[in-house]
Amino acid sequence: MTVPAQDSPLVVPTRDRVRALKRHLIGALRDLRAVKHPERAIQKRTAQPEGFAADVVRAGCSACRGHCCKGGGEHAYLDERTMARVRRDNPTLDAAATIALYVSSIAPEGYAGSCLFHGVRGCTLAKPLRAELCNT
Ligand code: SF4
Q: What residue spans define the domains of the chain?
């Protein structure tokens, strides 16, 4: 089996990139406020593969080292649907605390040109905070 792979150098995230993430999250939280029924916006969890399929996925993902994460940039595919889930699961967090939680999860050193959460050991964002696309 052949999988794509990435071998970019590791870099410290720039302030501009962190600011771009914050702006993106503010937009996603604003979009969530406009949603009439936030609970309906939450995407259904995709079942995790099991058995042989799980082995193949694990092997493929560790070999490619996050090629797919290159598209994550400063948005990590986060949108109002993810924000709806995160706000539901963390009712005590206000918007500022939610954004701070994401910023504190940024990889201290990440792969150049990839998602801000794409660190040397993989994704630095906890699964409950990731977009459903990433968890899928
Ligand atoms: S949030 Fe994690 S899984 Fe999603 S694109 Fe970024 S590094 Fe990859």
A: 10-135
Name the residue among 119, 55, 117, 120 with its Cα closest to residue 82. 117
Residue 85 has a pLDDT of 98
For ligand 1, atom 1, name the residue with the nearest CA.
76
Is the CB–ligand 1 distance for residue 85 below 6 Å? no
DSSP summary character for residue 75: T
Q: How far, in Å, from the CA of 96 to the mean position of ligand 1?
A: 21
CB 76 within 8 A of CB 134: yes
78 CB less than 6 Å from ligand 1? no
pLDDT for 36 equals 96
Helix 80-89 vs helix 95-104: angle between axes, to the nearest 10 degrees? Answer: 100
Ligand 1 in contact with 72 (CB < 6 A)?
Answer: yes
Which atom of ligand 1 is least distant from the CA of 115? 6
Q: Kindly give, in sequence order, each residue whose CB lies less than 8 Å from that of residue 27, ignoring residues fewer than 6 positions away.
A: none
pTM for the model stands at 0.91
Cβ–ligand 1 distance for 118 under 6 Å, the answer yes
Residue 14's SS3 state is coil
What distance in Å separates the CA atoms of residue 126 and residue 89, rounded to the nearest whole number?
13
